[in-house]
Structure formats: structure tokens, C-alpha cells
Design brief:
The chain is mainly α. Helix content is 59%, strand content 0%. It has one domain.
């Protein structure tokens, strides 16, 4: 029973990107967090995302498919 709860909880915890720009920013932030890119190269949203989000959250957002997503979303 506990395993089913964990699977259900994990599904709700994922954070899909709402736009192509957000998905790309998450990818850049994830690369910097993992050490594959320089943190000093980050700007704007990706810089903020790298500081405030966990690697798991960034991974979930960066892995969102771009098909059908708008290029940008207004706040």
C-alpha cells in the first residue's frame, strides 16, 4: 500500500514546463546545477531557477516535451 502512495505522490509532484522558453531555461539551469555549464553564464529565469529549484524539479521541467507548448507564456 505504501508503494502505491509513493507512486501517486510522485506523479503530483512533477512540474511540467508551461512554455518552450520555460523548458529551455530549466535545461540551462539543470546543466549549470550539474556542473556541465558555468553558473556565471546563466541569465534571468534560468539563473533564478538554478538557485531556487532542486535538481529533480529542474529535471522534470526540462524533460517536458515542447510539442504543443507556446513559445512564451505571460505571467
Amino acid at each position: 500500500m505504501a508503494i502505491a502512495f509513493e507512486v501517486f505522490r510522485h506523479k503530483e509532484d512533477t512540474m511540467p514546463a508551461k512554455s518552450q522558453a520555460q523548458q529551455k531555461a530549466a535545461g540551462a539551469a539543470l546543466a549549470a546545477k550539474r556542473g556541465d555549464a558555468k553558473k556565471s553564464d546563466l541569465k534571468g529565469a534560468s539563473k533564478s531557477m538554478e538557485r531556487s529549484m532542486s535538481e529533480k524539479d529542474l529535471e522534470d521541467m526540462a524533460s517536458t516535451k515542447q510539442k504543443g507548448k507556446p513559445k512564451h507564456v505571460s505571467p
